[in-house]
Amino acid sequence: MQTLIKDIAIVGTGFGGLGMAIKLKQAGHDDFVILEKGASSGGCWRENSYPGAACDVPSLLYSFSFEPKTDWSRAFAPQPEIEAYLKHCENKYQLSNNIQFNTEVVNAVFDASAGRWLLTTASGQQISARIFISACGQLSQPATPHLKGIENFTGKVMHSARWDHQHSLKGKKVAVIGTGASAIQFVPEIAKEVKSLHVLQRSAPYILPKPDRAYSDKEKQRFKSSPQWQKICRLGVYLSHESRALGFTQFQQLMSVSQIQCARHMKKTIKNPELRKKFTPDYDIGCKRVLISNNYYPAFTQANVSLEIESIDTITRQGIKLKDGREIEVDTLIYGTGFKATEFLTPMEVTGLRGKTLNQEWHKGAEAYLGITVKDFPNFFMLYGPNTNLGHSSIVYMLESQIHYILKAVEVLKADNLKYLNIKAQPQIRFNQRVQDKLKNTVWENSCVSWYKNENGKNTVNWPDFTFKYRSQTRQLNLDDYHIVKQA
Fold this sequence. Notes:
The chain is of the alpha/beta class. It contains 14 helices and 20 strands. The strands form five sheets. Strands 1, 2, 3, 4, 5, 6, 17 and 18 form an eight-stranded mixed beta sheet that branches. Helix 5 crosses helix 6 and helix 12 packs parallel to helix 14 (about 465-475). It is globular and about 75 Å long.
């Protein structure tokens, strides 16, 4: 099989990969390939197609600033609309010829003498690229708990991010394990058709009412006819959400307002005090992801839905045995257990200078300079890398900051005909020390276990500041931060 030679290789076709490709193309850099493991573009919005899937960031913030969408149906967009928007971007900017679908990259090795990356796919194809950009995201690998006896279960098992739409739940006895952001969306939907639904909760989430509503035809027409009006509305939503960073960081006392709102929401929708007690979190608000929903709590007032807070002992052939000895008979088991957010790029193996792998470099926890590039991995850039996730605003804003920075690096490499750029150790160390110091004074460091932290307790996921500060730090490429190796 002949090696494909390209200047740039991008992995992933979600917001990061498509946004990067569009900006490369607009800047005249056409010699790139996008490698996508799935059969179509969309990233996590292609894969998370479970019933009720929707965004918990307002629609106005959930599009590229350079490609505004004027006809969102709701204030919070449902999954099909977001997936369709990304496919629209692919088509409008004519990216189809640059994408290889059904192409999963399993490893990437940097050749220092040539100054190129060699990527190998699951099918054995090899791609040689001068610049390697990962746009895999943090929410691409489903996390499933190890449950004793799961191999004996005779029913259907699936993860919310791998929903089997061919498997009908009508009249089924279903158990859901996990009560995170995905579960609170699909539980109310499947509750309408299943015979019985047992939701197994390990830790109660904080849930705020969702300020969702449909946009009127008049509103959509005004967005379309007046781009400036949509920009003003978008700015208003951005500033409103940006202010929430204060509660997550230096003014944590502000989170008490949200905690009161959560309690009122629960009291309004659940009249049973015993059930409210089960739903009451035992940790500080914000320590884990704060969720939004109007229909999750009401689902548990239905006769066929129950909440289980007892731990699982064993999975049996016909269901679940709990620690208290009770057995729940089910024929379908659904994981709502989220993603391996701290295992960046897994299961791809990336090897840089001197045979060092990213797994070795990150054995104590993932880190990168600006969340974008890693020492000893030259010409390698990440979108949505370590410590660039948000608890208060839109990741699309962060991605556009990263895309701008990477584009600057691409232009320097090509204009000066450099072999490679390799971030120095000290800038990376200083940046991550500042991030970790800031994280110590955030709600995420309070006493709870969350997917923000790895097994060592290090938060490798969240950005602990305003997004406009991150944009300021990524506005310019400082070549003094890099070892520069020129072509011979």
